[in-house]
Hints:
mainly alpha
Amino acid sequence: xxxxxxxxxxxxxxxxxxxxxxxxxxxxxxxxxxxxxxxxxxxxxxxxxxxxxxxxxxxxxxxxxxxxxxxxxxxxxxxxxxxxxxxxxxxxxxxxxxxxxxxxxxxxxxxxxxxxxxxxxxxxxxxxxxxxxxxxxxxxxxxxxxxxxxxxxxxxxxxxxxxxxxxxxxxxxxxxxxxxxxxxxxxxxxxxxxxxxxxxxxxxxxxxxxxxxxxxxxxxxxxxxxxxxxxxxxxxxxxxxxxxxxxxxxxxxxxxxxxxxxxxxxxxxxxxxxxxxxxxxxxxxxxxxxxxxxxxxxxxxxxxxxxxxxxxxxxxxxxxxxxxxxxxxxxxxxxxxxxxxxxxxxxxxxxxxxxxxxxxxxxxxxxxxxxxxxxxxxxxxxxxxxxxxxxxxxxxxxxxxxxxxxxxxxxxxxxxxxxxxxxxxxxxxxxx
Length: 432
């Protein structure tokens, strides 16, 4: 016990020494940078940049994102933890291990997910490191240190992005938005000059979550200018939302329609357009005009009829939606989303009818709603079963199995449906 205690004390002292060493080196580098005889030398600024990076790294400890806790327990045996506790952050369970300068958050799988610096060596080390290396790049007129400076800036950009994810996971959205934007700017800095449009996009998304729609508009406009449109045109959807929140309905509509033409399968854009037309008393039939143009260009694109089904479902036309989903699988019998779309259509309609029936006091009307509910629920089973049969994606298969399990449970008095229920319940449980 005495040996373990002495090792823990030695580990804590070692962390203190590292921090003190980083402070001393940083002060020396800052003094050189302020010296007129030295601040015209490239080496002065690379030294300062590295000193700031060392100052940033000093409180982090020996861990790294993704590291198994079991490994770190061995590697960091000399670094004394002051506390270990189970915490819930933003709805996620973590094991939080506190050290003298940082907190480590391990997920349920036992891997390190977040490193939170609690006692930084100095303020804004990453931002100051970037400024130092930018100055070094200006002085490197012959390009002799381009490779080294580029690598250093890349390291800074990566650290900024890691900090952004950590801040987001901890619910510090203001900090996350700031760091995502700074990470994108650092990544684009010469000579590294590697655009990180995804980080820029995330800065816009978090700004939108914060209700800062002017900032969202600014960032998403940059994304489009950079040629980045996100997954399924999400940049258009976020930009349109920002304009809508800022009261510019015409611009909102413009970007939704542009996005829909480029990404007709995007649910975000589709729902945005439907809401726009309905909230502004415009005819949603304009959506079908846009969709018809896409069909003319790609008449054998099954996904376009799937999109039509989604639109008609949103507008409450169950029969027309079912016909559109049927057309999508007629074009491509292996298009699982057509079957899934039809299954969801009837399943969600059944849920709606069930809620109406529960609130109906008239017996005759109740029986009619109950009959329609059972028919709609039974109608969802065949398309879901076809989707389950043909999909090769286990996550999709598991999700479909859940719907099938629930639907078949209603009819379990029939041995055929009881067998189906058992089959899909077993599969759903096997992939959890």
